[in-house]
Amino acid sequence: MTKPRIGIIISSTRDTRFADKPAQWLLDKVKDHPDLDFALIDLRDQDLPFFNEAASNLWMPSSDPRAIAWQEKLAGFDGFVFVVAEYNRSITGALKNALDQAYKEWNRKPFGALAYGSMGGARALEHLRLIGIELQMVPLRNAVHIGAGDFFKVSPLGANAPMSEIEGNLEGSLNAMLEELTWWAKTLQAAKA
Question: What parts of the chain have a pLDDT lower than 50?
Fold first, then answer.
C-alpha cells in the first residue's frame, strides 16, 4: 500500500497573510515523515469561482470546469491539514468557498489543522470541524494552535520572530496530530482498498 497523500491547504488568500510562515514551518517538519507524503495546496493558486452550481456534486456533476479541476485535485489526497486563519471568529471566505466546491472528494478523509490568531484559531477550527462533519470527513481531536503570546511573537503584528522561537510550544501538539492523522489516513485508506 502506498503512503497516504496529505494536502496541506493554506486557507487565507490575502496579500498580507501570515499563513506562509506557519505553513513553511509545517512543511519543514513533515518533509521526511515516514508514513505520510505531504503536498502544499495554496488556495491563492486555485482558480475557484464563487460556488454557483445547481447543487452539490453529491447530487449532480458540477458544470464549471474550475470546480471540476478542484474536485479532481482533492480526489488525489487521502487526508488534509488546514492552515486555518481565524477571521471574525470563523474560517476565511476563501476556505468556505473551496469546501463548498466539492463534496464526494472530501468524504471519509481525516483532517487536522494548524490554526492561528489571538485565540489560537480555536473558534475558526471549531467551525471547520462542524463543516467537515457535514462533508463526511474525520476531524481530528489534536491540532496545533498558535495563539496569544506565541502568535504575537512570530506574527508581523508583533515581533515577527522566526517560528523556531515558539516551536518548542508547538511540537507536542504537532506530534499528537501527526500520530492521529497517520492512524486515520492508513485506516481509511485500507478500508477503501
Answer: none
